Amino acid sequence: MIYGYIRVSSNRQTVENQRFEILKFCARNNVVVDGWIEETISGTKAYKHRALGKLLRQVQKDDVIICSELSRLGRSLFMIMDILNYCMTKECRVWTIKDGYRLGEDIQSKVLAFAFGLSAEIERNLISARTREALARRRAEGKHIGRPLGHFSQREKLKCHRYEKQILRWHEEGWSFRQMGDELRISRNTVQRYFSRYLRDAIK
Asked: Is 153 a residue of the active site?
């Protein structure tokens, strides 16, 4: 299956320009779009909660997604790389017209796969470094670090504790606390309070 994906950020924008670009590209390359996915939504919204997420869940091996440019997939580098990485795991292909990307079984895709892994490792290291810096700052301020022997800290008893790294990552990707809560099945207010109390210092 070949899918044409079109995204605009507001009702004032038109999908026709992107559709024209995709159709012109298909005509040059003798391919036919089997289905169109169009949505009016900000590219900062998590792709799992967009029509794009539904498309990605249904694509199969060797399916192709064509869009006008990478920025139509998302507005942050990590989000775009996450989407492309997901496509590679499902062995579907992504073609972009303006950027000229062809994600598939070629050397470019292997380079991208390496970049995905490297970026994920860098992200983990940055989060770890910020956490260490925040702990060092708290120690310098004379605040207690850790828990009394034989007892769990109040923080470890909270629902969000096990999801700290995921919450920090989602925050960097622009997720709202409501989106985080929906994904974790925890109330938005609970996630927001936990972030404000325990994680805000880690991103400074």
From this structure: no
